[in-house]
Amino acid sequence: MHKASPRWTDCTCFHRRGRRWEDVLEENGMRLRTRLALAFALLALVPLAVVVPPTLTRLRDTLSRELDARMEAATASAQESLERSSATARRAVEELVDSTSMEDLAREARDRPTRAIQAGTAEALMKSRGLSVLALFDREGRVLSSGHLPARRGDPDPALFAVTQQKSPRPVPVRVEVRTASGLRQLPALVTARPVDFGDLRLWAVGGVLLDESLAQHLARLTQTQVTLLAGDTPLASAGTAEPPTVTKALPLGDAATVRLVFSRAAAREAEQGVMRAFLLLAALGGTFAVLLGLLVSRWMTRPVEALTEGARRVAEGALESQVTVKASGEVGELVRTFNRMTSELKATTERLMASERIAAWQEVARRLAHEIKNPLTPIRMSLETLQAAQEAKHPRFQDMFKESAGVVLEEVDRLRRIVDEFSHFARMPKPQLAPVDLGELAQSVLALYATPPTGIQILPTLQTGVVARVDRDQLTQVLVNLVKNAEEAMASTGGTLRVRVRSTEADAIVEVEDSGPGIPLEHRARIFEPYFTTKDGGTGLGLAIASRILQEHGGKLEVGGEPGHGARFSLVLPRAA
Ligand code: ADP
Questions:
Q1: Domain boundaries, the chain
Q2: Which residue among 17, 83, 313, 521 is the one 20 to 30 A from 419 at the CA level?
Q3: What is the dotted CATH code of the domain comprising 345-426?
Q4: Pocket residues for ligand 1 (CB within 6 Å)?
């Protein structure tokens, strides 16, 4: 009867690589939910990811084109404004040389060269014509009078006089030396030269406009930019502001000066960032919404899986016919139907299996019992036949023989009774009444029966308390008594040590009974749990069979160990209770 009756938690078909299948299902439910949530989030974010980069590029293009157009327009209007200043200066100089006052001045200069042209002459003419540069030169390039630098009178000014060599009537940019509040400075100006002839006298009038602060201010107002006038790298005048980031455009005026226009890109950047922020907000909102939706949908989808998980757990706990009632379609629906079919068959199959196992086990027991009963019958029969023969032959020692034979018969009948008693005990074994029991205390109470062990035998207990299992106290006591009795019998002739240990692992509660007797030969190990296997005179061979069966009924097992020749160890392994 040591063969295990089937228990469904042991069945390998419910395991997948060592994991319980309900755990696998539950894990799958979890994974499906995460996957769906992620898929939805992806679904929401992918279109955004596809749309955002080209939109941003397009926006950037548009903004940059707009800036280009603005820069072009501003540059054009700045150029136009410079052109206008140039034209105004040209007209003013032309009108001046054609004027009667200039003719008068020339005539007087011919008649009375020393007096006609004085230091203040050019300044008066310059102001009257709205010019900011005017110098009158003689034929050789000596300054006769200077409006913008009166102190130059009598000296040459080759830089300014060089303008007289220009073929074009248009003003040209040159650097002119002027006196300002901060001393003498070189300032850029648009200047043109015209000859004034009277008879054989020739004068040169060289005039124009300075490019200074007021021009910068005018251009800044006109173009809505920051304008800087530069002579080489030196800034001369600046007006207007431009918020960074900026783009710069330079407008060269010959070698004399550069007009630098600084455009602000702040507005464009603001627009770009605004769009980016809007997209990010959209992505965050869309993503959150999609994840929530995904979770909701997956909850709805994983319900059948969870119901299956619950069903599987119930089956594992022993409710073999438990059914899953959840509406599901497709593969999951098929799975639910299969599960229900399987569990409804499960109980019947289990019962059939257990019944056939029981029958097989009992047949084996009956076969052995018959054998056991047959053994005493032979000596009984022989004794009776001997007596019969002796009586017929009127044997003189019949009286003695009768006494002897009666002894044998009585002894064998006693043995028969013992066999029948043990068998009926074995057959009647009641179902265990389970309750939490501290195995340390139980072992203690069993060992108390052996307070004075047989001579030569020492008992060494190591009993951990708090190791609890759900067991039938009486049946487990019977097992322990039996194991201790076997150990004592094994050490009866030699003496030795009996160790009793109670310990636990994470899942199991364990009681070990170990002796230092002869141990169990390997060839006997497979058989000692069989009913009627014994190596002792007068043994029944039922003790270990009963013990093993009790442990099986508790969901545990009885294991045999120890090295042959050095002792035997029996371990009771039981599921540990919380
Ligand atoms: P019985 O004690 O009536 O023989 P058991 O079923 O208790 O029946 O034991 C079966 C056999 O197992 C014993 O006859 C013996 O050969 C062997 N056995 C049991 N316990 C021990 C032990 N502690 N040391 C050595 N052999 C043992």
A1: 345-426, 435-575
A2: 521
A3: 1.10.287
A4: 486-487, 490, 515, 517-518, 520, 528, 533-536, 539-545, 568
